[in-house]
Amino acid sequence: MLQSLEKLPPDPILGLAAAARADANPDKVDLTVGIYMDETGVCPVFEAVQRAQGMLVEEEVSKAYLPPVGPEAFNTGMRALVFGAQHPALRDGRISSIAAPGGCGALRIGAEIINAATPGARVWVSDPTWPVHIPLLGSVGLQFETYRYYDPQSHGVNFEAMRDDLKQAKSGDIVLLHGCCHNPCGADLTLAQWAEIADMAEHQGFTPFIDIAYQGLGESLDADAAGLRLLSERLPEMIVAASCSKNMGLYRERTGVTLFLGHDAENADALVSQAAVAARRVYSMPPAHGALIAGRILEDATLTANWQQELASMCERINGLRTQLVAGLAQVTDRDFSFIERENGMFSFLGLSREQAVALREQHSVYMLDSSRINVAGINAGNIDALVQAVAKVL
Ligand SMILES: Cc1ncc(COP(=O)(O)O)c(C=O)c1O
């Protein structure tokens, strides 16, 4: 029976990263996968993570199961981190949460709950969106509609078009929004635009589902969550999937959380009980290690301060790289790349054609996706000139 299954091609992004690794050119530039790299090209372990991990190793006396929602310190810390410690809904018990295997696991649990409430619900996704959204939510049985979002001409959000498309979203529909640092385009909504989305959700009755995988890597922890907080202050319900992969560097630990804003405390409690049952049938229990580390960091004031400092310097570095890239490209091309500085987070579409992206890797060992999406955090002082010169050559 199993012989009928054919070998599948590699994932397009991971496949390109593998091609970059296999490239023997010592001056190659790999801007494919969305992980933060430091100046030396290494994806570092946060010091706060190392310290929290050390404490846990010292203290740990058991590997018995934790509660199905994961460690309490993690849940408490993540609710405050995402919604803000002073959020009235936190005080009113309207926010519940469950630890999940990474942001992907958190999205999956959110999708399970949506499908339990409205089987086959319509989910509105941005065009473009992170490609994994479709198989991840679609495999639960959800259906998709797209709303226009990124405008390649202006390199920004086409909010008029987004609003026009979302006029068709109704009660029972879900609108999936990137909380910050849109992947793949880096173009985010302004707060005034988030407020318009809140108006539309209020009038039309759709439920927002926020994917926030880069909180703290756009502007700051609070500024990056301001849009979703604005929605949560005005709307009766929403779901948030948050990840600690990027902002704590816990990629391989699989650390995420699904947060529910319910109509009242009873509803919030019902939602998380449903989520625990959904998790039970998919993978039973969330992984503990990363959630224990993140929980320890968030409950310990010194570790929190250390972590926030490290994260802020990563964010500053990414924004500095954006500035340097704009300046570098301005020197060698006559195209306007200033949009790169207006975007947030790790990603940007350079606005090159597929042929140019292919020529960059085949002729210059500069690896980016065919869409010309780059991971800005993969740039450093040692490779920026090669990148800039190569882009100038293919233009
Ligand atoms: C938009 C978006 N959402 C969610 C995730 C989830 O990541 P993870 O499951 O590794 O936490 C990612 C990771 O790349 C992402 O880019």
Automatic annotation (TrEMBL):
InterPro entries: Aminotransferase_I/II_large (IPR004839), Asp_trans (IPR000796), PyrdxlP-dep_Trfase (IPR015424), PyrdxlP-dep_Trfase_major (IPR015421), PyrdxlP-dep_Trfase_small (IPR015422)
The organism's place on the tree of life at top rank: Bacteria
Family affiliation: Belongs to the class-I pyridoxal-phosphate-dependent aminotransferase family.
Alphabetical list of Gene3D superfamilies matching this protein: Aspartate Aminotransferase, domain 1, Type I PLP-dependent aspartate aminotransferase-like (Major domain)
Organism: Parahalioglobus pacificus
Domain Aminotransferase class I/classII large as annotated: residue spans: 27-391
GO-annotated biological processes: L-phenylalanine biosynthetic process from chorismate via phenylpyruvate
Keywords linked to the UniProt accession: Aminotransferase, Pyridoxal phosphate, Transferase
Cellular component annotations (GO), alphabetically ordered: cytosol
Quaternary structure (record): Homodimer.
Pfam families in the cross-refs: Aminotran_1_2
GO MF annotations in UniProt: identical protein binding; L-aspartate:2-oxoglutarate aminotransferase activity; L-tyrosine-2-oxoglutarate transaminase activity; pyridoxal phosphate binding
Protein name: Aminotransferase
Keyword Ligase recorded: no
CDD domains membership: AAT_like
Cofactor: pyridoxal 5'-phosphate
